[in-house]
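Quick check before the chapter quiz. The format below is the same one you will see on the exam, so make sure you can read both the input and the output lines.
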Amino acid sequence: MVVDPFCGRGTTPLEAYLLGRNAIGSDLNPLAVRLSRGKLNAPKDIDGMVNVMKRVQELEDKFTLKKTQYSKEAKRIRRRSEKSPSVGVVFGKNVLEQLLFLQNELISSETKNPVDPFLISIILHSMHGSSDSYFSVPMPNTFSMSPKYIKEYVKNEGLKYPSRNVFAILREKAAIALYSAEEIEDTFAEIYEHNAEQFDSIGFEKSAKLLFSSPPYLKVIKYGQYNWIRLWFLGEDYKKVDEDLSDDLALEDYLDFMENVISSSRKVLDHNGLACWVIGDVEKGANKINLAEKVWERISGSGDWELHCVDEAPLGIIVDEIAPSKKVTRIWNSGGHEIWRKSKDNATEQFIIHVETQSEADLKVKELGETEYFSVPKGTSGQATPLDRILMIKPVGSKVFDIRLDASYEESDISDTSPNQNLFVLIPYLKWLMGQTTSKYKRYIRRIPKLDIVNVIFDQLNLKITEDDKSTSSTVKASILRKLWQEINNCNDSVLPKTKHKILEDILSKLDVKFSKKTDISGSSAITKMGVFKILVGIEKQKEVSD
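Here is the expected output.
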């Protein structure tokens, strides 16, 4: 079993689970817990995929009946936001009314319906961003700008609030996440909202062989403030979250905290287990602090732990060599911070100064006065901690096998019996799409690779795709269309149309599906994704008739 008392967005439990290990994670941040649960509760088979689509349809139908109620509430929120900016400045009216409905339906029932944690996770990931797959006015995806800043930003840039079908985006993103899923058997993964200092009180039936975790680093980020939009959907007060998660500690207080966490984790770790703590260096003024080393110095006197030393880390601490631009342990901005001043009635704000780091911003706000001044992060790409280190420790006397990461592993095939090893959850999703209107399924198939749909068609006809049929691009080769034409016409190619466009037109005609030059073909010889999808629609229609 693998455990992580600071699981964040669930990377450690998820990777452990995908490797066939049991996993338990916890975090005190309610947003992190919901995102982790969503990943680990994603349906992993065909029935699960169908259940997701049925649940979204059920929610959409229910919203249609209750739309007037939530429309009125959305209007009130947006009207109030004109004077006191809140979530009403983030979303257009039609999006806000859908989110208010989903907030009411999903948050209250998330422990009852097994599909809901997955849907909640998709919604949280989609709350704000710059493309049409997000719900908000264009803004960074990685952090939530302050509502007053958003209001001014929208006004100054002349932005318009986009109209979105939230349910359509849910379906689309669910399909992207699920159609390439792999079913994992005989393993479990659980996520708890829990304090790491009492990690052992969760109640473990088995001891863990590995702990891998990345604790907070002495005031690196305000998790609540920078995620206030997502926390709004969860019904959480971001100020309360920041208060609970506060890591604005003096060094000694931080070391006391880590000592308590590590002591609690010892009670769940197997005697021959290994604990890896990813701890970043921090900067305090001109000083750089090696926190991993400080933590080891604090706990080494307990007599419970010893360093796990390997050739690459003879002192038990591995230096993370990943380039800062590729790290995910980072502050959610690289453009520094802006200091703004609020008027006494909170009606207006005035830009004051730009600083580079979070610590500089905090000092400046404290210097100027926290009641009148506040900081706003700028930029979206992220700035890493100066250096990350992995502190490897184990119970005294532990025998930990040193397994090299470059050991040879056989890649596991996708659980599938189709002749083309097709992505096994894609078929029920495409069948569901066939029942939708043309305008809807044009949107839903947008991110499904064209050649994956070709694979499904060949599976349905029990045909084999050869090496000569495959393409390095999204091009549908003439050999693919020839095989389909021959199968559907049950004849050889003596009367085969000469061009790919004509072959497609003839195939669709035989399948009683309307051909359109506008949507089904492109250029002199290309077949569009819509054209390929129509072949599948026609085949399924024929099956229904024959059944």
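If your answer matched, good. Residues 25 and 191 are 5 Å apart (CA to CA).
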